[in-house]
Amino acid sequence: MIVRADRLQHISSAVFYELEAVKQELTQRGIPVTDLGIGSPDMPPVAHVQQAFSQALSQRGVYGYPTTQGTASFKEAASHFVSARYGVSLDPAHEILTLMGAQDGLAHLALALVNPGDIVLIPDPGYPIYEVSVHLAGGIPYHLPLLAERGYLPDFEAVPHDVLRRSRMMILNYPGNPVTAIPPQDFFTTVIDVARRHEIAVVHDAAYIELVFDGARSPSFLATPGATDVGIELHSLSKTFNFAGPRLAFAAGNRDILSALQTLKSNIDYGVFRAAQAAGETALNGAEETIVAMRQQYASRRDIFISTLAESGWHVDPPAATMFVWAPIPGDRDSRLFARRLLENTGVACVPGIGFGAHGEGFVRFALVHPAGVLQDAARRIGHFFTTMH
Ligand SMILES: Cc1ncc(COP(=O)(O)O)c(C=O)c1O
Predict the structure, then answer these.
(1) Which residues line the pocket of ligand 1, CB cutoff 6 A?
(2) What CATH number is associated with residue 341?
(3) Structural domains of the chain, count
(4) Which of 39, 133, 168, 204 would disulfide-bridge 233, Cβ 3.0–4.6 Å?
């Protein structure tokens, strides 16, 4: 008999499995499903990045093992990107580490920094790997509620002193998934102050930092004075450059954190396929144009989705950033039930907010990962379902 390790008890995907089963059932019955669940980009990388990828495939040595830390030229491109966009000057050899997606960093950082029994501060609602990674390392997650009345910022004053004393790491995510808020410019100054006073390593997941709309800018943790003394920032190529499949991201900032992570990872993986790093380098070097186009693309998808929903009477605040719409469920507060019913009645899949933590209850998340016409059609069907609820 196969017995699962106890630690897997903390990895519950029940919320997601349940919807997956309904999706499969609908598909088998020939009912088309519009999946606004997982945030997987539907668009390809821009042409010159695809070209760089295919050219790299015939380069000498590309099929050998890469190295955990990443190629020097990718890290140089990453350092140049951070300097050009956030005005931060970093040493690519020690202050940048290539990752197999931000997920790789997030899954392993707690193992590299946290001892059993240590506390890690995580946002609630938050991206699920934050909590899972802490459990895998034997740590204790402490939830920082992100509430509308506080602009979705954590209230560090409300965290008991003993918790702060026992905290080794905190994970933050702005603009966030699922909460799409942009913090004020001075937010990270407060974070760095708390981190210094309590010796807490800061991990800022900046996966959506470039997906901002209407001229907004989301501040970089890295660009805040003192950031590299206490933490790192994770930059992913998945969303910004439609490069989710090849698995490429980088961590930037504090060299001690990066060196601990590299030590761990050098026993786990051999790094990212060199061809993907070469294409990623091209993407980073030509970032400005891609980013402008990407923002326009998602902003127009957002507008059509939100305005079509509003026609039915479901008014949702347009997100200032990210590829997600975080929608408060009218009336019915049970997000799991709502998502299930929505899927069964309309064929539109979304993610119930409870899957992101207790403070996600009462919300659902829609990912804008289809062309505008498909989103408009989905929003019409959702709207129709919404009106029949009343
Ligand atoms: C907040 C957040 N962080 C990290 C990731 C993972 O990104 P990557 O593809 O770089 O592993 C995601 C993916 O959806 C995300 O939403």
Answers:
(1) 39, 101-103, 127, 173, 177, 205, 207, 236, 238, 244, 249
(2) 3.90.1150.10
(3) 2
(4) 204
All residues at 6 or more sequence positions from 308 whose CB lies less than 8 Å from its CB, including other chains: 375, 376, 379, 380, 383
pLDDT per position in the chain (390 positions), as tens?
999 998 888 887 777 778 888 999 999 999 899 999 989 999 999 999 999 999 999 999 999 999 988 999 999 999 999 999 999 999 999 999 999 999 999 999 999 999 999 999 999 999 999 999 999 999 999 999 999 999 999 999 999 999 999 999 999 999 999 999 999 999 999 999 999 999 999 999 999 999 999 999 999 999 999 999 999 999 999 999 999 999 999 999 999 999 999 999 999 999 999 999 999 999 999 999 999 999 999 999 999 999 999 999 999 999 999 999 999 998 768 999 999 999 999 999 999 999 999 999 999 999 999 999 999 999 999 999 988 876
With the most atoms of ligand 1 within 8 angstroms of its CB, the residue from 127, 210, 269 to mutate is 127
Q: Per DSSP, what are the bridge partners of residue 143?
A: 122
Do both 111 and 30 map to the same domain?
no
Mark which of 265, 286, 307 sits at the end of a domain: 286
For CA atoms 259, 261, 267, 269, give the dihedral sign: negative
**What's the pTM value of the predicted model, to 2 decimals?**
0.97
Q: 77 and 207 share a domain?
A: yes
Rounded-to-integer distance, Cα 129 and Cα 17, Å: 16
- Asked whether residue 31 is assigned to any structural domain, the reply reads yes
Contact 22, 342 (CB under 8 A): no
250 and 170 together in one domain? yes
Residue type at position 364: V
Q: Domain range holding 198? A: 47-286
